[in-house]
Amino acid sequence: MGISKTSAFSARQNEIATFARAFAHPARVAIVEHLLRHKSCMCGELVEVLPLSQSTVSQHLKELKKAGIIKGNVEPPRVCYCIDKQVWERANTLLSDLMQQLQSGCC
């Protein structure tokens, strides 16, 4: 039994990787952009603006939620999604710092 790949890296590196995975599909980027413009929405609203089925949109929402970037507030019988501002700020800080490091280290 080997060491887990993620345990071999720092918490910061794992956190950056989690955020990067969350943005690794253009549908998720589109969902985040929509939420940033509209503050919140229901899954059905996203289905109307994205060229994806309801089940596919739900799967992408699940991935964004798993990374903590969005949160869902239950408004029976639906869920209203919005950006989690605290996590968004953390992602922004980590990714901005990483980009700054990359720029300063480039030729």
Gist?
The protein has 107 residues and is an alpha+beta fold.
Tell me what the structure shows.
With 107 residues, the chain is of the alpha+beta class. The chain has a single domain, classed as Orthogonal Bundle (Arc Repressor Mutant, subunit A). 62% of the residues lie in helices and 14% in strands. It has a three-stranded antiparallel sheet with strand order 1-3-2. Helix 3 crosses helix 4. The model has no long low-confidence stretch (mean pLDDT 90).
Task: Please tag this protein with its features.
single chain, 107 residues, alpha+beta, Arc Repressor Mutant, subunit A, three-stranded antiparallel sheet, 5 helices
Q: Kindly estimate the percentage of residues that lie in beta strands according to DSSP.
A: 5-15%
Strands across the major sheet, in which order?
1-3-2
Give the terminus-to-terminus CA distance.
40 Å
Shape: elongated
Low-confidence stretches: none
Overall number of domains = 1
The overall pLDDT average reads 90
**Rg for CA atoms:** 16 Å
- Main pleated-sheet profile: 3 strands, antiparallel
The portion of residues assigned to helices is: 55-70%
User: How many individual helices?
Assistant: 5
| Count of strand segments | 3
* CATH C-level label: Mainly Alpha
- Based on the coordinates given, report the CATH architecture: Orthogonal Bundle
